[in-house]
Amino acid sequence: MDAPEDFGLDPAARAALESVSTATITTVLLKEGLRNVWMRGPRPLRLGQKRVAGPAFTLRFVPAREDLATPASWASPISTRAAIEAMPEGAVAVIDTMGVTDAGVFGDLLCARMAMRHVAALVTDGVLRDAVGVDQTGLPVWSAGVAAPPSVAGLTFVGWNEPVGCGGVAVFPNDVVVADGDGAVVVPRALLPRVLAEAPEQERMEAWIMREIGRGVPLPGLYPMNEATRARYAAQAKDDRS
Questions:
Q1: Which helix or strand (DSSP H or E) is residue 92 part of?
Q2: CA nearest 54: which of 162, 229, 210, 185?
Q3: How confident is the model over 23-70, as pLDDT tens digits?
Q4: Do 53 and 145 sit in the same domain of this protein?
Q5: Domain count across the chain
Q6: Measured between alpha carbons, how far is residue 62 from residues 110, 129, 133, 137, 220 in Å?
Q7: Which of 1, 27, 140, 227 is the most exposed, having the fewest neighbouring CB atoms within 10 Å of its CB?
Q8: How far apart are CA 226 and CA 223, in angstroms?
């Protein structure tokens, strides 16, 4: 369950991903044939939460079984506590709870430790507990809400750094996760170069389209662009670069 040797994200790639929206990334991936990349359930814990990007560090829960889901299990070698100590700096912890929302998988103490280890964010289709304390840790969190009961009230933790399903999306260790106000999106590692190449240009193009809308230009032929509009955009982009 150790982290993969190539676990990480180049600082330039991280910065580029944090400059583009999840909406743009889903559009780029749609062009590559991927429709199911946006996780259902995870929402920002607080308004105005900054966009984050990082490699996925996965954690998996299964339904609670009474002989395993006990407070004593928190001291097990296979526990959320042990998983946190294996999280690399800059990772995004992706927690698969099968959508269970009546047992809080992490609370303020665990999130505080993650923040101290410089984990980039936590994303889960489940819920957290100790919401005020979690917010005070400063750890960026995307979750399906909050609940008072502990994880063992409804879930059994079984492992980390293995494929999981979070919010109906398959997430593999070392995939890249980007999360912002619209939720969390997974970028398959093999498609990261394509996203890095296309997403910033998509953002520039849409910013130009927004300015054209502000000038009163009607949408037909503008979005999506027809040939004349595309030529006008290309000419403007060339002028901006010169």
A1: strand 92-96
A2: 185
A3: 999 999 999 999 999 999 999 999 889 999 999 999 999 999 988 878
A4: yes
A5: 2
A6: 19, 18, 26, 27, 49
A7: 227
A8: 8
